[in-house]
Design a protein that fits this description.
6 helices, Stage III sporulation protein SpoAB, transmembrane helix, transmembrane
Length: 170
């Protein structure tokens, strides 16, 4: 009976450590998906000259499910004839979509992107896209550094915490 308790304790704490480490992987994955989706949106707007609502829908369909939801919500808000500007629709979609994996800086980058979305010509839109993608790439590099540093830490900490609990109760 004690052996089962020891195994369950170590397994549980190790699992918690791995789950905490997965947040770092999820953040990097979302950032990569956002960069890719923004690049696709940039191509739709600047080169194909697709109207914003339709471009957002196209990106939502061709992007990863999690990130595509943001673009889908933005297209819905933009198309619902409520008088929202593109920036307001983006802001509303961003608030509804928030996943909790992104840092405050990354959320601010996306908010700043939305303020300029749809209010200038294609050339300025392209500059906005490039700036946003560059800033997100910088955040991705930081996320990769944090991940390297912290993923192993949380994984090992989970196991060691379980071991410490087992030692205390024995």
């Amino acid at each position: 009976m004690k052996l089962i308790g020891v195994i369950l304790t170590i397994f549980s704490t190790t699992s918690i450590g791995y789950l905490m480490a997965m947040k770092f992987k999820a953040r990097r994955w979302i950032l990569k998906s956002l960069i890719s989706a923004l690049n696709l949106l940039k191509l739709e707007i600047t080169y194909s000259r697709t109207p914003l609502e339709r471009a957002l829908k196209k990106v939502a369909l061709s992007s990863d499910k999690t990130v595509g939801e943001l673009f889908h919500r933005a297209s819905l808000h933009l198309g619902e004839q409520s008088g929202l500007t593109a920036g307001e629709a983006w802001e509303k979609a961003l608030n509804e979509w928030e996943r909790g994996y992104l840092s405050k800086e990354e959320r601010e980058i996306l908010r700043a992107f939305g303020t300029i979305l749809g209010i200038s010509d294609a050339g300025n839109q392209e500059k906005n896209f490039n700036l946003t993608m560059d800033l997100l790439k910088r955040q991705l590099n930081l996320a990769e550094e944090e991940g390297k540093k912290n993923e192993k830490l949380y994984q090992n900490l989970g196991f060691l915490l379980g071991l410490a609990i087992v030692i205390l109760f024995l």
